[in-house]
Design goal:
β12, α13 and β13 form a beta-alpha-beta unit. The chain is built from 22 helices and 19 strands. The strands form four sheets. A six-stranded parallel sheet has the order 3-2-4-5-7-6, sandwiched between helices. The protein is 42% helix and 16% strand. By secondary structure, it is α/β, with parallel strands linked by helices. The structure holds adenosine-5'-diphosphate.
Length: 573
Amino acid sequence: NSQTTPQALIDGNTLAAKSLAAYGITHMFGVVGIPVTSFANRAVASGVRFIAFHNEQSAGYAASAYGYLTGRPGILLTVSGPGCVHGLAGLSNAMINTWPMVMISGSCDQNDVGRGDFQELNQIEAAKPFSKYSVKAKDIKEIPKCFFEALDSAVSGRPGGCYLDLPTDVLHQTVSESEANSLIKSAADALEIEKGLKKTSTASVEVERAVDLLRNAERPLVVFGKGAAYARAENELKKLLESTGIPFLPTPMGKGLLPDTHELAASAARSLAIGKCDVALVVGARLNWLLHFGEPPKWSKDVRFILVDVSDEEIELRKPHLGLVGDAKKVLELVNKEIKEEPFCLGKNHPWVEAISEKAKENVSRMEAQLAKDVVPFNFMTPMRIIRDAILAVGSPAPVLVSEGANTMDVGRAVLVQTEPRTRLDAGTWGTMGVGLGYCIAAAVAEPHRLVVAVEGDSGFGFSAMEVETLVRYQLPVVVIVFNNGGVYGGDRRNPEEITGPFKDDPAPTSFVPGAAYHVLIEAFGGKGYLVGTPDELKSALNESFTAKKPAVINVTIDPYAGAESGRMQHKN
Ligand code: ADP
């Protein structure tokens, strides 16, 4: 403050807070305690909003999703030892989804390492497998440099998780305020110089080749994923697709870059589209399990892939026909420019476009017939239709949808309609369950103009259900809809012959207390709870809670025998 003289001393906590704010960080998620409480308080005083959670795991999931939604590093703050270990869940999730995040953990006094200090752990080693960069500030003077390096590393190249270690003794060291300011300035300057050196550009010959391949393809397809969403490539994608008339297929989190209802959307004809396409331009999506590794039998063995990815390692790994390394938005700008030189368009009557559109219509009308029925006790389809219609009725800005659970997520992916970019957050590349509440909180603070609606299974909800208190504390506009079928995959699905042994009378490993009153949980903290079992009850709860835009839990009773074990992943269980 203005009272301090240049000679005034500041400690590591204050310097850390100032460094964070100087980089431009505005939000941090976490759990405080020894030795990071002062850091959190000083960060708040420096203008950083601190969202305090119950568990670092959820806070870490929040930080990762915040990074994805904003394109800036999401910050997780944890205590040492166990706090750091809990936080690794979030850090690894950021890494696997390629989302920018920095986990900052306090650690034990460097002078007591190896002697069994309070919450002692070699956190740098623990974080290594789950981070692209990790660093320890061994002295107060290293703090600004470590912050700037970790934060910048999270967002540069392929985004990912980074780790920053702040030992207790360093947080308590002091420097003069004037030295602190010059340390921050030189850390910022060093970064600018490095950024200038890193600039690269995509080779134009490759762009020409890519456009030639698309132009000469008989059955071209454009696939895009959450990397394209992260790159904010929606306008370039729209231009590409609408100028060429090529059908497109979003991955689950790519949904919304173009509306699911777009006439070129091949989602409802997915098997045909990927099974028969001869050239596939894949933008910001990995050819991993979610895309069947780009191999037969799902894909034709002759398909030629053009991959656009910011990571050259990813392109090396997949060995596509052609790889374009770079930011999806920038690469697509070049592609569109090249197309403009010699435009081409398949048109509605093109046999490939027609085949996809007919198949999609057929599949959609089959699903609509299922959805139209009011089945009570609820299956998955009836409530999902009602929720879809309620979300669509909100209009623009569209709510952020958070989705997890086996059947709930599978059915939801097909039924719920995404109309705007980056409005779907789900279990992602790892199929991580337990992300729901963290993602809701991240979405609510990152996108304050949107309502947040979570549609999740009871088991997914249970991982982080205590965070409903966090929703209430910050009064976030989040409506959590729990599909309650009494357990993982719903109730006891064992064959009677399987139920033997001394513990045969225990509840099945898949079951929870039947009829659990999850809606009462949020009421304990002053939020709004609803228990619904019929279409009218659900409609009225959705109507009321969407209008109120206040924390609410809608507990939807689902027939425990509806849905399938492991959802559509049964072959792996
Ligand atoms: P999805 O789950 O939607 O299929 P993935 O997470 O598998 O998507 O793939 C996302 C890909 O996007 C990653 O390989 C990542 O390197 C890449 N990526 C991240 N940021 C960008 C960007 N700005 N431009 C292009 N690709 C990006």
